Amino acid sequence: MLAIKEEGKRVPFEHIFEKVSRDVEFLEGRKVGEEEVRAVLDEMVKSGLVGFDGGYYAREGIDEMVEGIIGLRGKELNLSYSLVWIAKRYYSALSKHMLPFLKGRAITGIKVFSGKKDPISGLNEIYVRYRKYKPKPVYLTVNDEGELMDLVFDHCIDFIPYVHRLGSRWPDYFVLDLDMGSELKRRPGSFELVKVVAKEAYDMLAELGLYPMLKFSGSRGFQVWAILEELEAEDGFGLMREVAVRFRALLEKRLKSLELKEKFPELVKGGEITTSTVAHKEARAWKILVDWSSMKPMGDVRAPFSIHHKTALVSLPLSTDMLEGFRPEDADPLKVLDNASDYVKHARFVKSDPRKLLSFVGLL
Q: Domain-by-domain residue ranges, the chain?
């Protein structure tokens, strides 16, 4: 609890006791007294890990201790505190690489707190879309590292920007979200199949002269992005939805030329591999959805380098060369910290000419 607070933040004993007694009672089925908690805090003060000055606060060395405890006994710890501690350590190093994708647009921030029924492994997730509501609503925005870390210290671990800038009716983030159907994702080899689809979609955009970005979703799929220059259009969102649908059809033709049924005989059973039909999940259980549904006003998408609040994995930019050997566990935030230089160069915030894309799909 102390390790997730901003530097120098004093926490009163009453607050510490309330949370510790709740967690111990749930985990161990016993009541804990104030004397026991004070004794532990006194020992931590003597060791130099914790200071006291009108309240308790973390000192140098506590992060190293917490990292060791998470590694050895993570399942016994309060999950929300563990996630916020990981986010604090991770974003303090990598937030500058995520900021370009947040600046100038509204975002949704997802905060995690202890579950009401299960404070150890349960989470209470709160989606925050407004910085304040009165006297009128103000969208949540993040324009510098200080604002981002203030949110992290307030338990926000996941950052999801809108696909359009504030006040704009043009989706400058063109996002193809590749999501496996329910039957497909349960089968061995499905993650390798969606990698193939992601690479081909990326290559198609690159061959058009765009500057695409490939990104692990943070869960079980991938996203292919293109950041577009603004184009005057009566309905920019509708236009880009149509682009996505037509692009998917051209992607499918390209996939057929790869003879994927031979490589994935248990997954590719004839017919199309992909679909752009968002509704009727049961009808696409064996397909990969090329999802265009974020192309709408206030449509949003997880930022590159954001931590996915459900999986605790990073939504990680990749190169196509990294795809073959990539595993979801490679996106563990602490592992990403150790190999950050391998990923930051692939988070390209370079704008592309949308007319090239419109022409390719027959809309220009």
A: 2-76, 89-161, 173-304+347-360
